[in-house]
Amino acid sequence: MCGILLNFNTNGINTKLFEESLNLQIHRGPDSQEIYCSNIFDNKAPYKINQFKQKNLNNPLFMSGFNRLSILDLSKNSNQPIINNEKNKMLLYNGEFYNYLDYSNEYNKKSDSLTLFDLLNNFDSKALNLINGMWAICYIDFINRTILFSRDRYGKKPLFYYHDKDQLIVSSEYKSIFHLLKRSRSVSLDSLAYFMIGKLSPYKDINNNSFYKDIKSFEPGSVNIFNFDKNLFLDNQKTQIDFPNENISRLSNNEIKEQIYKDFKNAVEKRLTADTKIGVMLSGGIDSSSIAGIVSKSKQINEVEFFTANIFRQNEVTPDTKYANYLSKKLGIKLNIIDVDPKSYTDFIKNAFEITKYTELPNNFSLASIPTYLITKSMKEKNFKVSLDGIGGDEIFGGYPSSLQSLSIANIQNSNYYNSILYFLKWSQYYSPSLFVKLKFLLSLIIRSKHINLKKDYHNNNLFSKINFIKNGELIKKIKELEKNFFIRNKLCSIYERQNFEIKNFQIPYYTGVADNLSMANSVENRSPFLDLELNKYINLKDNLKFNKGKNKYIFREVIGHLVPKKISQRIGDYGIGTCYDEAMLDSAKSIDIILDSNFIRNLMSESLIKADFLNNKIFTRSLFSIAVLDHTYNLSL
């Protein structure tokens, strides 16, 4: 929705540098920009920057700036930063407060931002427990000289900060912080190790570090208080906003289905509140199709279109486009298909560098980054400002059938033989493997059992098979530490534990990070109905309501049966969002030149081993390529 930049500096702030830094993220909010200046300790009201300059004042101690993407209440009344009549309270808020009408009044009923500001003025941080939505908040109290910082429970909206003995910088994007600091980018080995193991962009802080040294992000669901007088975060006032604890175990299956439909319908319809055009990302899979089904029946929205991209697997377009096209015709809603030349390395490289400029992270170009960027680019061209996506469906309702094998292994390694066989049977039901494949997997279970233990598994077995290719000893050490202490997913023995791991540590931080970065790159706000506050409780469903009769998301499929054709609600093997390019583009020999031209990469691995890996297993090629593109864009150091 917007871009935030805030700076407190006891030595004073260069206003021109601050303006330049805020403009670096103008794509996050091109509709209006406001900047305020204050000297904090003089007990005077903050000035708008033009007033500050007219008074010939220089180098304020505090500046706050906001780039607005106007979606709800397009008038200037909702421009930010919002400041009260007494000019002693201020709000910078990036996000959406979907249930704001429950707390609004005649004055603020058109604006979730104004409603939130009133709630914070009346209830302080307790107001955040009322919000069903996504947010990154900076709430300044000039009387008590404090700032309240908070992010939503899932961390959909980013908020980074740098803090030292002289200053605090808070921003929606890294680039504004680095411009203010006039400092080059030094990479955290913890986060680099996370990327090398997990192959997903490191949107999650690892060991209290973002991808860049000395820059952190506020934790999802956290409330943090900063004190100007002490130039300190008040650790004793840090709190956490949790999900409501609702017991669904007492409900019958029919009651659960009724409740899921009600909660899911509400989640989608709340996200249709906008004064702008709304598009739906439609992959043809169960999750996005169910959203499309609700949208098509909603009376809240008159103008909606679907968007998809041709996705390639094994050099062919996946069937997902065919299913998306089928559903759009059934629902009578236009489908826009983004189609690129899958064999154009020039286009691939152009998009890889553009995407990296916005994410400021190494990217997995074989997953969601390219289609998300290209789809929202098309949305922007058609004047759509809001996008609905299916992020969270697998994590909430029990997707990821690929986890069934590792669940069977984890249980046998913990001597849970009954559960191991149970997950083996669920895997067999879902994939219908040949007898030979079944016997091969049973043998692998036996050799992995606790008492025999002939095989050791890692989160990334390929990486560990060639870990000595990496010449940086500290990075190898970090990889081994993370494997032991963080990447424990494959050691977890229940679907519920796996879901929580994906939500807090892996899939959700990645997909929400990509969606925010690359939608906002095109001035489009993404909304994720499955991450609604009221749907989180369904991770507590019994296993047989998640995987049953050879189907994942079993009960959710039952719920959406009347929303979409059976051909979609009961389909097996949807591919999900991948890349728009042929795999040969991802592993092109041309990429080796980009890799070898990176000074940063040459500090990680020798030229001869980079070439040897490319000619054989290509274990490192894609990761090194992504890091090299980032290095060429932002000049990294260790």
Written description of the protein model:
This protein has 25 helices and 25 strands. By secondary structure, it is an alpha+beta fold. The strands form six sheets. The chain has a seven-stranded antiparallel beta sheet with strand order 3-2-4-1-10-9-12. The longest helix has 18 residues, at 253-270. The radius of gyration is 25 Å and the shape is globular.
What is the strand content? 15-25%
Low-confidence stretches: none
| Strand numbers in spatial order across the main sheet | 3-2-4-1-10-9-12
The outline comes out as: globular
Largest sheet: 7 strands, antiparallel
What is the alpha-carbon Rg in Å?
Answer: 25 Å
* Overall average pLDDT: 93
| Helix proportion | 25-40%
Give the tally of β-strands.
Answer: 25
Helix/strand structural class: alpha+beta
Helix count equals 25
Question: CA-to-CA gap between the ends?
Answer: 33 Å
Summarize the structure.
The chain is of the alpha+beta class and 638 residues long. The chain is built from 25 helices and 25 strands.
Descriptive keywords:
alpha+beta
What is the element layout, followed by pairings?
Layout: E1 2-9, H1 15-23, E2 32-38, E3 47-48, H2 49-54, E4 62-68, E5 82-83, E6 89-97, H3 112-123, E7 133-141, E8 146-151, E9 160-163, E10 167-171, H4 174-181, E11 185-186, H5 189-198, E12 215-217, E13 222-227, E14 232-233, E15 239-240, H6 253-270, E16 277-281, H7 286-297, E17 304-309, E18 312-313, E19 316-317, H8 320-331, E20 335-338, H9 345-359, H10 369-381, E21 384-388, H11 393-397, H12 403-413, H13 417-431, H14 435-448, H15 461-465, H16 473-485, H17 495-505, H18 507-520, E22 525-527, E23 547-548, E24 551-552, H19 554-559, H20 566-569, H21 583-586, H22 590-596, H23 599-602, H24 607-615, H25 621-634, E25 636-637
Parallel strand pairs: 11-25, 16-17, 16-21, 17-20, 21-22
Antiparallel strand pairs: 1-4, 1-10, 2-3, 2-4, 5-6, 6-7, 7-8, 8-13, 9-10, 9-12, 13-14, 13-15, 18-19, 23-24
